[in-house]
C-alpha cells in the first residue's frame, strides 16, 4: 500500500512562489510515475506535471518554464516548485502515483482516466491573490 501526503500549500500573491512536497510511503516508490494535478473551484481536475523514475518529466503547456517537478528517491518524496504564480492557479493541488503510466501518457490522459491512477493524496490548498 502506498500513501501520499502533500504539504507546502498556502497563500501567496500573484507572481510569488511556492514549493509543494509529497511524502510517499512504500518501499517501491522509485518504480512509480509521480504527478501533480490541481482542481480549482467548480472546475475539473487537471494535470500539471509528472516525472518518472529516471527524471523524465512532462508538463502541461500553461506551466512550462514556471513550474518544476522533481523527486528524491532516497527520501521517497516528490516536489513541485511553482514560480510566477497566477490567481487563476488557485486550486487544491494533488499528488498522484501510478506504476504503469508514463509522464506523457499521464499528461494526455482524459479526465475519465484519472480514476484509474493507482494512488492519490488528500490535496493541499494553494491560493494566489491578485
Report on this structure.
This protein is mainly beta and 130 residues long. Helix content is 5%, strand content 45%. The chain has 1 helix and 11 strands; from the N terminus they run E-E-E-E-E-E-E-E-E-H-E-E. Strand 4 (33-39) and strand 5 form a beta hairpin. The longest helix has 6 residues, at 103-108.
Helix and strand succession?
A: EEEEEEEEEHEE
| Shape, principal axes of CA atoms | globular
Distance between the termini: 40 Å
Number-wise, the strands total 11
Overall residue-averaged pLDDT value = 95
Compute the CA-based radius of gyration: 13 Å
Low-confidence spans: none
Share of β-strand residues: over 45%
Helix content: under 10%
Specify the number of helices.
1
Provide a compact summary of the structure.
The chain has 130 residues and is mainly β. It has one helix and eleven strands, in the order βββββββββαββ.
Q: Main traits of this protein?
A:
130 residues; mainly beta; seven-stranded mixed sheet; four-stranded antiparallel sheet; 45% strand
